[in-house]
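Consider the tokenized backbone below.
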């Protein structure tokens, strides 16, 4: 029972961190572009 909850939390945390990483990559690209222009 507890294992299933932990697995669910782990997958949710993974997906959240993945989207945060994607956002940071987009931000880095925008910053790099603004520095070049």
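A designed sequence for it:
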């Amino acid at each position: 029972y507890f294992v299933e909850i932990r697995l669910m939390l782990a997958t949710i945390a993974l997906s959240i961190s993945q989207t945060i990483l994607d956002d940071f990559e987009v931000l880095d690209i925008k910053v790099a572009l603004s520095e070049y222009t």
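Residues 1-37 form one domain.
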